[in-house]
Amino acid sequence: MIQVASLHDTPEGAPELSADVEVVIIGSGAAGAAAARRLARGGVRVLIVEEGPAVAPSQFVSDSFGAMAQLYRDAGAQVAFGPAFLPVLQGRCVGGSTVFNGAICWRLPRDVWQEWVAADPALEGGLPWEAIERALDEVERDLEVAPTDPAIAGRKNELMARGAAALGLEGRPTRRNVRGCEGLGRCLQGCPRGHKLGMDRTYLPEARTAGATLWAGCRVDAIAWRGTRALGVRGTTFSGGRFTVRASRAVVLAASAVQSPVLLQRSNIGDGPVGEGFQAHPGVSVAGRFDEPVRMWEGATQGYEVIGLRREGLKFEALGFGAEILAMRLPGAGAEFARAVGEMDRWADWGCAVRARARGTVRPSGRSGVKIRYALTDEDLGRVRRGVRVLGELLFAAGARAVACGVHGFAEQIDSPKALARFEEEGPRDPRAYPMAMTHLFGTCRMGSDPRTSVVRPDFRHHRIENLYVVDSSVFPTNIGVNPQNSILALATVAADGILRA
Amino acid sequence: MKLSAWEARALDRLAAALLPSPRPGVPGAGAIDLRPFWRELRHLPRAARLGVRAAIWLLTFGPLLLIGRFTTFGRLDPAAQERLLARVATHRIYLVRQLLQLLKTVVCFGYFRDPAVRRSFELDRQVVAPER
Known about the structure:
The complex is a heterodimer of chains A (about 500) and B (about 130). Chain A has helices at about 30-40, 65-70, 110-120, 120-125, 130-140, 155-165, 205-210, 255-265, 325-330, 335-340, 380-395, 420-425, 485-500; strands at about 15-25, 45-50, 80, 85, 145, 170-175, 175, 215, 220-225, 230-235, 240-255, 280-290, 305, 315-320, 345-355, 360-365, 370-375, 400-405, 435-440, 470. Chain A is an alpha+beta fold and about 500 residues long. Chain A has two domains: about 20-50 and about 95-105 and about 105-140 and about 200-270 and about 445-500, FAD/NAD(P)-binding domain, CATH 3.50.50.60; about 145-185 and about 280-440, Cholesterol Oxidase, domain 2 (2-Layer Sandwich). The longest helix of chain A is centred in the C-terminal third of the chain and has 20 residues, at about 380-395. With about 130 residues, chain B is mostly helical. Chain B has one domain (about 5-120). In chain B, about 60% of the residues lie in helices and about 0% in strands. Chain B has helices at about 5-20, 35-40, 45-60, 60-65, 80-90, 95-110, 115-120. The mean pLDDT of chain B is about 90. Classes of the chains: A alpha+beta (about 500), B mainly alpha (about 130). The interface of A and B includes residues 65, 339 and 344 of A.
């Protein structure tokens, strides 16, 4: 990890900014950082433009609202509209969501890549498995990915391991990109000690050392293009000034599965299914009350996962977040709620990420907003019910005395797992009954060989604008059922290699 | 959007009813000054700010709107406030339930920012890292 004096290179005080570079990269999250580092090391003059601020670990705050206001898009209050309102969590800072995610690392499952190739055989040549594997290996080495150290796991993770063992479900300590983790449980607010090896601590400083420039607090409003060539970008700085960047070689879009399609649409590059096919991993959580203190806000943030049902589209994690987030999940209002808060140290909240089949849309709204529409399918809701059941069973198997599913129309608390099997069969079919949130966003500029059904080619180039590349998770043809950080890093690295060869 | 003085007072009352003292020695939301946090709600996007405001109005006039009693939330006795909150939490209309959940979220964010509350729950205690 390279230390740098400053976190960004944004010129101060200039009313109008402009730059001439070879490649401009929009977004500094996993995709933008990986592409920037690769290109800068390849001798390319790169400028990374990031809408959010640069925040150092010493500036991270411990309370969840403060952290969300500082690091998350819309202070964590971005919502997908449909039958239910589903919060959509995204980063808006230098390093993107790698700054505040749970540091969970997964390799892209080969069976998911095989699904992609089965649907579009051209991907086998354009995005060969061997190239992905090489990039994944490199990412894991760079980010020091390793299983969670049991010494700092904390009780919540130990209890999930106990529950999984009792039920005979395959589980494991989560593989994470941390160095010297002390189990502060602060991943989701940004690690104040800088132990998480997010992009702000790794690939971005390395890219800058290799010659890349990073502008923070600069929102790209449009991509400039003519005919089949992208010319650069123009946008607005945090203080309201304007900026222009001319890119002689390529424009690389790495702004996320929400912002990338919106920027294409705002730039009148709406060819193909831009903004369609939005997929995610809706998450549902269940809380359990134990006789012993759990203090779920302490210990490795998400240090244990149950992976035995991954191929059913379900993955379970011991959650770890600020006490205020746990509190708002506890049952009741008034005296009952206060009682639960009073014994909050005995509650654990575990989550299930669902590989939902639903596909939504992402469109521009107003001058700079977005509108996400998304509705879970009946099949997805069946998975959600199964996820709730398994979470409840895991909690009881780990020793919980009571479980609160938070499902409207179902008992606020149950004290035995018997009701859970019936819940899976007979639980609500209405998505509005379930408290859910969405992370891991995909598919809105998907990759493929046919311009009618895809936005970029298998080499990440836009079908029509030949030097415009999209390298973030919006190009994934589907969601992947596991935490996508390392897959995004790997695919962006493969994309950058292609740009270097072009 | 800034809450009016009336809305801030109403939000104080709702917070106090929503989260009374969790256990002896720990203040309830009514016993701490949440006003500085209410001012920070300006960081929320417009839709969420509107949601908070709608929740304040809905619950303040909840007795009239939801149970047909011609009074306001603040004038109900604590037991009646509790019953009204329970009714809203399980209301058949999704939007009504969501507004209460939004209020619960906002109150929890503000409540757990208070230094006394954080000390009571030992939220910032230094966990000793293992020797390496």
